[in-house]
Design a protein that fits this description.
The protein has 93 residues and is α+β, with helices and mostly antiparallel strands. The protein contains two helices and four strands.
Amino acid sequence: MAIQTFLHKGLEDYFYDGTTKGINSKHKNRIGRLLDVLDQAKQPHDMKIPGFNFHKLEPKAAGRYSVHVNGPWCITFEFERNDAVRVDYEQYH
């Protein structure tokens, strides 16, 4: 039950080192909260928390989920067993 892999290098650096150079620094607190919860999640629906705007990205991206950061920015991810994988920070919509 942990984040295992990232697609976005800046997001990965922020998660492990607190470095904001690869993300919008205005989003750092929100991203930190989302990643903390995602790191503890055991299944996608553990992210269904008021204000996170959790949703599936199907049919466009089957098996991926999204939580809202700010404006068009989202953190998207998949789950394998009890781990979050391929975590990304993107303008999805």
